[in-house]
Design brief:
7-stranded parallel sheet; 7-stranded mixed sheet; about 350 residues; homotetramer; Dihydrodipicolinate Reductase, domain 2; Rossmann fold; about 20% strand
Amino acid sequence: MRGKLFDRLEGKEMKTKKVAVIGASGYSGEELVRLLLNHPHAELVAVTSRQNAGQTLAQVFPKFASHPKSKTLRFSEPKAGLLAKQADVVFLALPHGVAAEYAVPLLDTGLVIIDLSADFRLKSAESYKEFYAHDHPAPDLLPKAVYGLPEIYREQIKKASLVASPGCYPTSILLPVIPLLKAGLVKSAGIIADSLSGVSGAGRKVEADYLFCECNESVRAYAVPKHRHLSEIEEQLSLAAGSDVTIQFTPHLIPVNRGILTTLYLAPAEKLTGGKISACYATAYGQEPFVRLLEGDSLPDTKNVTGTNVIEIAWRLDPRTGRLIVMSAEDNLIKGASGQAVQSLNLRCGFPETAGLV
Amino acid sequence: MRGKLFDRLEGKEMKTKKVAVIGASGYSGEELVRLLLNHPHAELVAVTSRQNAGQTLAQVFPKFASHPKSKTLRFSEPKAGLLAKQADVVFLALPHGVAAEYAVPLLDTGLVIIDLSADFRLKSAESYKEFYAHDHPAPDLLPKAVYGLPEIYREQIKKASLVASPGCYPTSILLPVIPLLKAGLVKSAGIIADSLSGVSGAGRKVEADYLFCECNESVRAYAVPKHRHLSEIEEQLSLAAGSDVTIQFTPHLIPVNRGILTTLYLAPAEKLTGGKISACYATAYGQEPFVRLLEGDSLPDTKNVTGTNVIEIAWRLDPRTGRLIVMSAEDNLIKGASGQAVQSLNLRCGFPETAGLV
Amino acid sequence: MRGKLFDRLEGKEMKTKKVAVIGASGYSGEELVRLLLNHPHAELVAVTSRQNAGQTLAQVFPKFASHPKSKTLRFSEPKAGLLAKQADVVFLALPHGVAAEYAVPLLDTGLVIIDLSADFRLKSAESYKEFYAHDHPAPDLLPKAVYGLPEIYREQIKKASLVASPGCYPTSILLPVIPLLKAGLVKSAGIIADSLSGVSGAGRKVEADYLFCECNESVRAYAVPKHRHLSEIEEQLSLAAGSDVTIQFTPHLIPVNRGILTTLYLAPAEKLTGGKISACYATAYGQEPFVRLLEGDSLPDTKNVTGTNVIEIAWRLDPRTGRLIVMSAEDNLIKGASGQAVQSLNLRCGFPETAGLV
Amino acid sequence: MRGKLFDRLEGKEMKTKKVAVIGASGYSGEELVRLLLNHPHAELVAVTSRQNAGQTLAQVFPKFASHPKSKTLRFSEPKAGLLAKQADVVFLALPHGVAAEYAVPLLDTGLVIIDLSADFRLKSAESYKEFYAHDHPAPDLLPKAVYGLPEIYREQIKKASLVASPGCYPTSILLPVIPLLKAGLVKSAGIIADSLSGVSGAGRKVEADYLFCECNESVRAYAVPKHRHLSEIEEQLSLAAGSDVTIQFTPHLIPVNRGILTTLYLAPAEKLTGGKISACYATAYGQEPFVRLLEGDSLPDTKNVTGTNVIEIAWRLDPRTGRLIVMSAEDNLIKGASGQAVQSLNLRCGFPETAGLV
C-alpha cells in the first residue's frame, strides 16, 4: 500500500504539507498546535476536539490569539472522512485506547498518522494488555507502526505510515541508555531510572491531585513500582540489548510546569573507562541536532531545555561504587511529546529535520 | 567530667533550661530560634551572629516580631566566656570547620553543646579530611560526640555533653535504612539513595545558583557522585551493618522552599516478604512520635511533613525486579536539622521528647 | 435566650470546651481542624463532611496522622441533633447558602455557632441577594449575628451566639482602613483596594482554573469589577465612616499557596501628617496581639505572616501625589479565615485570646 | 550626520545587518542574544561582558549550546573602536550611568545604538538626576534620543541613531494609557498603576532579596512610593496629555520568573461609554502586531504572553464607582525589554517589524 502522501512527495521539491491534529485540547496537543502554526512547511488545516468543537483556536488558547490563523481555524468534531480530504498527515493527541479507534479508518484512507498516545508504541499486544488493562483495540496494526524516536529509528520513520511517538519518560531514558547497551558498555541487568517530571506530564486532567495547592511545595513519587511507561521502555531496551531487559523506574512529581530530569544508575561491563563512554555517545549523538552532550562540570538542568526540542545528557563514572550515573533533561511536552512528533513529521515528509523546531 | 547542666538536673523536676544559639542567621538557625522561642521548657537567653550583632530578633527576622522577646533579645558577638555564664545548653548553627573552634572552649566550661554542623558527626578524622578538604580542627573531641539521631541513639544522647546533630540528607536516608540493615533484611552492598531537596538546604548563601530565577522552573542533580554527606551516611550505615558500606547518593535541587524526598533502592536478603519489612519497621518505629509509617496506597509527600518534625516512610517490594524501594519525606530544616536538635535537647534535659515540637 | 455554653461557663474556671467542625474538607476547614487539634482549651469532638463520612482524620488529612486523635476521630454525616449533644461550639466551614441551613437548627438547640461562610456577614438581606444571586436563606438571623473581626467587635463577640467570621479579602482591607475612617483621617470616597491572593483562597475546588499548570508562572486579575466580598467590605466601611462607602476592589490570583497582600489607595482628609497616622494606628492596634505595625523601611511580606494569625500593616504618605498608601499582609487561611474564627472562639469562651494561635 | 547604516540601507533590498550586544550577561541581555541568534536578518557578530570575557556563548548560556554559533562566538571586552568595525547596530544592555559612557564614542563612529538602559529615556536631565541620584553622563545626547516604544514612535524610530528602549513597567503602563489620554477619554489627574512583576525584572543581581527562598511563597510591594521608572512614565504621559501628569505607581514582586501584570485605575472624562473606549483602542492598536485587545470575558494573564513580544490589554468600566479599570500583561524581558528593542531594530533597518519576534 502506498499512501497518497508518498505519491505526492515523489519527485517533488519541498512542498507544504497539510496537517491536522485530533484531540488538540490537552497540553501536548496545545504545544503541537503551537509548533505547527509556526512550521515553515506545514499548514495546519484542521484541529478537532469534542469539548471545544465550534470554537476558534484563539478562544481555546488565548496565547495563540495573535497568530493570523487563530481566529479563523475552528475546532471541529473529529470525522475520518472529512480529515482524509483535508490533510496529508494527521496527529493523534488522544488518550490511549481512543487513539487506535481513530487510527484505523484514517490509515485506510492512505493518510500518514503520527500518534502521540501509547497505542502503537508496543510490538506486543500482551504487554499492552498487562500495562493498560484492556485488550489492544487494533493489534493488527502493531507490526506496521514505527517507534518514533528519530535518533534511533530515523530511516524507518522516513517510510512509516504509522509513527508511534514515544512517551515523555521513555524518551528521557532510552536516548541515554540505548547507545550504551548497543555498544555493550553496560550490563542490561539492574538498570534503575529515577525520574522527576513537571506537572504538565499529567496532562490537563481536572483532578484534585493536580491542583496548584496540592503540587506546589510538594514532591512525591507515584505509580511505584509499575508505571505504564515501563512497557515501552523495556521493549526498546530489550531490542537494544538483544535480550530481555527489566528495569526499575520511579517517577516523581515536582512543582514545575515542564521538564523531566532522569537519573540513571547503570552497572558497567568490565573495564569501562570514561574514554569509551565519551566515544560511544559522540558516535551515537555527536551529529544529532537535538541531543546535547554536556562537557566539563556541567550537569543537565531542565531550565536549559524547556521550550526546546533538545535533550541534555551527562554522565559520571563513580570510582567509589564502580557505577555509571547518567543524567538527562528534556522538555516533556516537546522532546518528550510534540516536538519529537514534529521531528518525525519532518523526516517523513522530507523536510529538514529541524524545521519548525529551532 | 560532669557538666553543670547535669548537676542542675539531678533530682529536680522539669525546670526551664537556658539556651543560646551561636550563628543564628541562616535558615536552620532561624528555624531553631523559632522552635526555642516557643519551647515550654527552654528559655532563649542569647543569639549570636557577627553580621547581625547589635540588632534585635525582630529586626533580623520580621516574622518573629510578634513574639514578646523579639524586641528585647539582641544578637551579640559570640564569646565563650559570656555564653558560659548565661546558658546551660548552646546550639552551634555554624559552618563546618568554624563550629569546632567554638565547641572546644564552651565544652571546657561544662556546657552542653548541640552542634548542627558536620564537625562532630564522624568518628574518623581521616574521613573528615577526605570529604571536607581540611584537617579536623579538634580530633580529640570526636570520640566524645554522640550522633544526634534520637531514634537510634536515644540513650547516648541523654548523657551526651556534645551532640552532633545529623545532616538533612543523612536523616532521610539513615532512618529508613538502619532498621533493615540491623535486621539483616537487605544487603549492605549496592544501596542507592536518590534525594530531592528544597532550596533552603543550601542555606542562606547569596550565590547566583540559588537566585529565584535560577531555581524556579529548574531541576538538577549536583555534587555527583561524591557529596560530603556520604561520609556520615556511610559511617552510620557501616555501624548498623557491622561491615563497611559504600552507597550511591545523588542529591537534586528542586524548586520548593523546604522538604527532602529520598527514594532508596535496596537489594533484599533472601526470601524477603512484605510481612517481615512491616514487622521490622513496626518494631523499630511503631512507638516513635516523629516517624510516620505509611499504610495502604499512601506514599510520602513533602507537603505532609513540612513545618513538622515528622519523617514519613513507605516501601514497596517490586515483584518484577525483586528490589525493595523505600521512600522517605521530611522537612530538611526541622527533622533534618533544627527540630531534631531540639529533640536532642529534650532528651538531654529530661524534657518530654516532643516538647516544643508539636 | 441563654445558650447552654453560657450557663456552663458561668462562675467557672477556664474549662475545655467541646467543638465540632461542619464541612471540614476544604482548605479552611483543614486549617481549622489543625488549630483545634492543638488548642489547649478546645476538644475537637466531631468533624463532618458528606464526601469523607466514615473516614478518619488521618485518612483524609495525612499531615495530621501523627496526632493521637487522628486515627480515632472519624468524619460523620452532619446531623444537628447529634452535634447538639456532643458539642458546645460548632464551626461551619460550608459554602454560602448551605451554612445558613445548618445554622438555624443548631442555634435552636442553644449551641454557639461560628460561621466561616458569607451567610451572616451582612446586615442587609438585599445586599446579600445582590451579591450572592439568591434570597438569603434565614434573614431573621441577620440582626443577631456579630461580625467576627475581634479587633473591631471584641465585646460583641464575647456575648454572641452567632459569629459571622469575615472573609479573607475583607480582613485584609478592613483592619487597615477602619481606624483611619473612624478617626476621620481619610476620605470615605475614592478608596481603592488592590489585592493579591494565593490559590488556596479559591478553596479546594477541582476546576481547570486552579490546576498547577494554569496558576504557576501566571498572574491575573479576576471578578473585575464586582467581587462578592465587596458587599461586606462596604457595609463595614460604611459603619466605620458613618455614611455610605463604595470602593474599588480588584482581586488577583498569584502563584503562592497562601497569603494575601493588599495595597490600598486613600485620599487623606486635610492636613494629614505621618504623626497622625502613626498615632491613629498605635491607638487602634498598639496592644493587639495579632496586628503588627511595621516601622522604618519594612513593608508587609506574606512570607512573614503565613502560618500565623498576624496581619502586618505599613503605610506611606506620598508627597508627590498627596495620597496615602497602606499595605497589609495576612495568611488568607488563618487571620483571613480559621485563625480569626478561633480568635472568636477564645473570646466567646473566655479563653486567652491568643490560645492555640501562637 | 548620517550613519553608515543609513548609507548601507539606502536603495537596497533587505540585507542582513551585523549586530553586537554590549553587556550580555544579565537576563535582558541573554534574552536579546536569544532573539538575535534566531533573527532572519540580523547577524550577531559580537557580545561583550567584562565578567565573561573569553568564554563562548555556550559556556555562559548553556541553553543556547545547540546553536551553531554558540561555540564559536566568544564574549569580548567592550571596545568601541573594535565594535565600530564589526557591527552596524549595537545594543547596550548595561546598567544606567554605564550605558551612556559607551554610547558616546559608538555614536561618534556612526553606529546605530539601541540602549536598553534608562540613560536616554528622559528628555530632562534634571528629572534624571532626581530619580537616578547622579548627574546625567551625556546630557547633550538626550534631545537626539528617540523613546523606543514602536506603537507610539514608529516613524521616529525608523530614522533614529539612538533609540532609548523603554523600561518594563513603563511599557505595561504607557501602551494602555497613552491612547486614552490622547483621545481625552480619561483625566490626566489621579492615575494609579499597580504593577506585579516577576523576579527576572530585578536582573541577575546576586542579592539576598532575590534568593529563591526569599521570593518563593512571598509577595511584597517595594520602592513605595517613588520608583525610578516613574520619571519616564510621567514624562511620556505628560507628552500624551499635553500637560504635566503625576501618577501613583506601586510595583510588587511576585514569585514567577517572567511577566508583568499592571492594573490601572483611571477617572473617565465626562460621558465615557464602553463604545468610545473600544473605538479608541481599536483605532490605536487594531492593526498592531504585538498588542492584543482582549474581548468578552477574557482578562490579561501573564502566562498567555510570556515568551512572546505581545502585550494583552483589557478594560472594565465600573458602573458602581464610575471608574475605568485597565489591565495589561506582558513578558517583562521581551515586550518589556529585549523584544521591544528588536522591534526597534526591525523598524530602523527596514526589516518587517515582526522579524525574529514570532
